[in-house]
Amino acid sequence: MIEVGKNYTLVMLELTNAGYSKGSIDVTVTGREGNLIEVNGCEVINTASPLFHSLIDAEGEKAHFAKLEADFEASLSGD
Hints:
Strand order of the largest sheet: 4-3-2-1-5
Order of helices and strands: EEEEEH
Largest sheet: 5 strands, antiparallel
Number of strands: 5
Low-confidence stretches: none
Shape: extended
Radius of gyration: 17 Å
Structural class: alpha+beta
Number of domains: 1
Number of helices: 1
């Protein structure tokens, strides 16, 4: 779920001379209406666009992997 006010890494597909590649930039979502999100208060991204790849919640990703690591270490110690 995309939350207004949250920081994300925006990943988009970009056309280069070698074909498509992924480019990313850190953004703050400042508005949302349907498939459209406003980032950094000045740019609108259509999440239904074929060039939109993903929004990565870096803090959520860190928390997820920290929990996985803690659970793995607990399973090794027999808890």
